[in-house]
Design goal:
By secondary structure, the chain is α+β, with helices and mostly antiparallel strands. The protein has a single domain, classed as Ribonuclease Z/Hydroxyacylglutathione hydrolase-like (Metallo-beta-lactamase, Chain A, 4-Layer Sandwich), CATH 3.60.15. The strands form three sheets. It has a seven-stranded mixed β-sheet with strand order 1-2-3-4-5-8-9. A seven-stranded mixed β-sheet has the order 10-11-12-13-14-15-16. It is globular and about 55 Å long. The structure holds zinc ion (ZN). The site of zinc ion has 5 residues, from loops.
């Protein structure tokens, strides 16, 4: 059955699943022991956990713009890298998922990047028949946080492995880049907020009206298992800052009953959170269909 949109204000929201992959469970949970995290998300024999790359399509009925938030790992990996990350396009794939919504990449008017780690921007480009890198979303403006662009183009040694040359270089040469400030307002009811603990200048899309707020959590809360404040990824550049950011974010999410849209959770699409006895926990797990 065709996906029914979630309507918030002037926006229609659709899930765009772009494939599955796997990352090391230890790296995903930082200092949390495996005996604890493996009860929440099971690891395979190589200690990897399943990861979604769940993107979000935002159609504006006011401006007629079609935004795509993040675009997954893409298909540029070598066979060796595909196997290291257990890349799986049988579950879903970017262009196929767009087609299921009656869209082609050329229909997208705006790409919004939460940040430029490979699992968020890899789908921007692909290789054509002549093995040349081409831009898939050739009609789109690319929106990247200004501070993040600095870090992505001048990465430190620790973060370097996440900014792949084949992703960043073609983006840097693209002719329709928009470097945005923190808290950029795309339209009435669609804005971004910064979260720097994972990477400098990560931006999280907020879509809201008087009744409902949906937040695209990217790597601030990648899965439901990352709701407890100290469960922070080993990948984060500034884990203590993530702690602070999560604490205030989850407080507001609990108080205001925000819908938290999870990019990387293979099981849970959207959650709400509770704050009880000084701890945050998952209240409800739901799908976009439940909200439509
Ligand atoms: Zn990331």
């Amino acid at each position: 059955m065709a996906q029914q949109p979630v309507k918030i204000g002037q926006f229609e929201l659709y899930t765009v699943e772009t494939g599955r992959f796997r990352l090391d469970g230890g790296a995903m949970f930082g200092v949390v022991p495996k005996t604890l995290w493996s009860r929440k998300i099971e690891a395979d024999q190589k200690n990897r956990i399943p990861m979604a790359t769940r993107c979000l399509l935002i159609k504006s009925t006011a401006s007629n713009r079609i935004y795509l938030v993040d675009n997954g790992c893409g298909d540029k990996f070598s066979e060796k890298m595909s196997s290291i990350y257990s890349l799986d396009f049988e579950h879903s794939e970017l262009v196929r998922s767009l087609a299921e919504l009656g869209l082609q990449p050329g229909d997208i008017t705006d790409l919004v990047f939460t940040h430029l780690h490979f699992d968020h921007c890899g789908g921007t480009t692909t290789y054509d028949e002549d093995n040349k890198l081409v831009h898939r979303f050739h009609n789109a403006t690319y929106h990247i946080n200004k501070r993040h662009w600095q870090t992505a183009t001048h990465p430190n040694a620790r973060e370097k492995a996440s900014f792949l040359k084949e992703n960043i270089e073609p983006i840097s040469e693209y002719d329709d880049l928009n470097f945005v400030d923190d808290r950029h307002v795309f339209e009435d009811g669609f804005t971004t907020i910064p979260a720097d603990g994972h990477t400098i200048g990560q931006q999280l899309p907020f879509i809201y009206d008087d009744n409902r707020t949906l937040v695209y959590c990217a790597d601030l809360v990648p899965t439901y298992a990352h709701v407890p404040v100290p469960w922070v990824m080993g990948y984060d550049m500034f884990p203590l800052q993530t702690l602070k950011e999560k604490e205030s974010f989850l407080q507001e999410a609990a108080d205001s009953e925000w819908y938290l849209y999870l990019e990387h959770d293979a099981q849970n699409e959207i959650i709400t959170v509770l704050h009880e006895n000084g701890r945050f926990s998952v209240n409800q797990s739901m799908t976009m269909d439940d909200l439509a």
